Amino acid sequence: MSDFDYDFFVIGCGSGGVRAARIAANHGARVAVCEERYLGGTCVNVGCIPKKLLVYASHFHDDFEDASGFGWTVGKSSFDWSRLIANKNQEIQRLNGVYKRLLDNAGAELILGRGVLVDDHSVEIEGKRYTAERILVATGGWPSVPEFPGCEHVITSNEAFYLEHTPTRAIVVGGGYIAVEFAGIFHSLGVDVIQLYRGSLFLRGFDDDVRQHVADEYAAKGIDLRFNTEVTRIDKDGDSYAVTLNDGSEVDVDLVMYATGRRPLTAGLGLDKAGVDLDDKGAIKVDDNWQTSVPHIYAIGDVIDRIQLTPVALNEGHILADFLFGEPARDMSYENVPSAVFSQPPIGSVGLAEGQAREKYGDVHIYKSSFNALKNTLSGRNEKTFMKLIVDPASDRVVGIHMVGPEAGEIIQGFAVAMKAGATKSHFDTTIGIHPTSAEEFVTMRERH
Question: Is 151-260 a domain of CATH 3.50.50.60?
Answer without folding.
Answer: yes
